[in-house]
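re: ur question from yesterday

yeah so i grabbed the chain u mentioned. its 319 aa long if i counted rite. heres the sequnce exactly as i have it in my notes:
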Amino acid sequence: MRMTHFKNANVDVSQLAVGTWGLDSLRWNGAMSEEEAIAAIRAMIQGGVNLIDTAPNYGNHSSEQIVGKAIQGLNRSEIYISTKFGTHNDLFTGGVFRDARFGTVMEEMASSLRNLQTDYVDFYFLHWPDTHTPIAETMCALNFLKQQGKIRYIGLSNCDQTLLEEAMKYGQVDVIQPPFSMIDQRSKALMQWCAQHSIDTMTYGSLSGGILTGRFREVPDWPANDVRLSFYKGFRPEFFPRVMELMTTLDEIAQTHQVPVSQVAINWSTQKDFVSTALVGVRSVRHVAENLNTFTWQLSAAEMQKIDAEITRLGLDQL
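ran it thru and got these structure tokens back, copy pasting raw so excuse formatting
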């Protein structure tokens, strides 16, 4: 497993991390059972991964609870837990709302610690910006939790540079969590800015909902409530053909190395110098083994350039 030294946090983190959004059976069709999820998470840890990312609104706390069960009996000091706050499921409308006020953050922290069966969280992220709460108030809450020893490092997810710079007036921000993949580069400039300011990045959507694994060669017939159809642009009919053109290049490179296409996509992401670690979902123990084997080889500079050129030609860097 390749590692990245997080500068502000001063810790070494695996370049592959466990992403658990896919455990949300409310939004993902075919989510794993609890037993399968625990086995997959533990397989990743055994394979050298030392970071697990979750959030309370993934499955109305079920994702956090699964992670809590998965880490029981393991050496907690060797595992970094990342969770979030500020985004809440609205059970009446089926949507979400934002609330990052001081008191709410305190309540969410207590809930997450219960779910995770731990007494501290390593990385604590504002999940999405709350336009109704000053970031000064939110950062005050985070600094307070840090002083209490309940969190170790502060993060912002899905933020822009303006919000990040404002937050930095009130305390140290250690890491951001933006979306990033071959076909989602909207946060690239922010990530490059952060790299210059010692702020590390945990990228999510590394495989764009699975489309960059090569598994989907036709738009999948998922239920309308499957979040992948709306959240990941690559599945939209107007973009899907272009993604399939990119897959031709990825298929060729994968065949050259005799590896699954997913390993090409993960290597491409983690070999970018502004990516610290890539969150990848756990779908089965078999997929865990495939993803871990990504780090037994690397793309050449020429292959990286070839992929980048094809992404640009197809306009996929502008989605």
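noticed a couple things. The chain has eleven helices and twelve strands. also Residues 3-318 form a domain with the TIM Barrel fold (CATH 3.20.20.100).
anyway ttyl
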